[in-house]
Design a protein that fits this description.
254 residues, six-stranded parallel β-sheet, five-stranded mixed β-sheet
């Protein structure tokens, strides 16, 4: 198809050219991110449509668009398809309601490495988490790399992409969910009770949980660090915490 390329990993689409991207937006195609070089005219229309549809738009240099699309004929816009449709917070809350279990939700605070996000999604699926919440800005999205790293779990676990992570946490609290932040200042994770309704916040690779999100947490938990290195890869740490939740809950989801 003209002005389209398909990634081998997941069948997600890369669409370039002003008319194809505009038509994709109008047809409610499942898009993750739109990269734009320039403004006004049809590019302005694309920006407006993307905002209406909740699709993230990032400004980029012409050289980046050429690299992404593999051609200089991108007309200033490249859209990356999502490997799965984004869910809503309501969709995630409905999982535990349907299963008759306590909510278990993963909240990713600016996880920008798609390999880390993919690994977190994979572990979330195997540990029985109901879903994952990510912010629209400064976060990896459901792209082909995430799909491949998640071993396909990205199409099985509901992922909600929200414009305001703090507000999303407030919404979870309204549903009786306790928020557990992960930070070296917290209580040892094995001394923490995760058997109730649980929202587990995983911080960014370089800076951990942001100050605003820390203030939203009801508890802070940590992993013991005995070596010279005082931190773990975000997806590795997330996996340990998730499986502690599963261990404490036993066969609840079995």
């Amino acid at each position: 198809m003209e002005n389209k390329n398909l990634t081998e990993e997941s069948g997600t689409e890369m669409i370039y050219g002003r008319n194809p991207v505009t038509e994709a937006l109008k047809s409610d195609a499942c898009l993750d991110t739109i990269y734009i070089c320039g403004s006004g005219g049809s590019l302005g229309l694309i920006r407006r449509l993307a905002k209406e549809k909740g699709v993230v738009v990032k400004d980029a240099l012409d050289a980046k668009l050429t690299k992404l699309s593999g051609t200089a004929s991108h007309q200033g816009v490249v859209a990356i398809g999502a490997c799965a449709e984004y869910a809503t917070i309501e969709d995630i809350l409905a999982v535990s309601e349907k299963n008759g279990t306590k909510p278990f939700i993963i909240i990713c605070d600016e996880i920008e490495d798609p390999h880390n996000l993919g690994a977190i999604i994979r572990t979330a699926e195997t540990s029985g988490a109901d879903g994952i919440i990510i912010p629209k800005r400064r976060s990896a999205g459901l792209n082909a790399t995430v799909f491949k790293t998640s071993a396909g779990a990205a199409s099985l676990v509901p992922v909600a992409r929200v414009s305001n992570l703090a507000a999303a946490i407030d919404e979870l609290k309204e549903h009786g969910i306790w928020i557990y932040g992960t930070d070296a200042s917290g209580t040892n994770y094995t001394d923490t009770d995760f058997t109730g309704s649980c929202g587990l916040v995983i911080g960014s690779e370089g800076f951990g949980i942001s100050r605003l999100i820390q203030k939203k947490c009801d508890f802070m938990v940590k992993l013991p660090m005995l070596g010279s290195i005082n931190s773990l890869n975000a997806s590795v740490a997330a996996g340990i915490f998730m499986y502690e939740v599963l261990r404490q809950r036993g066969s609840e989801k079995a």
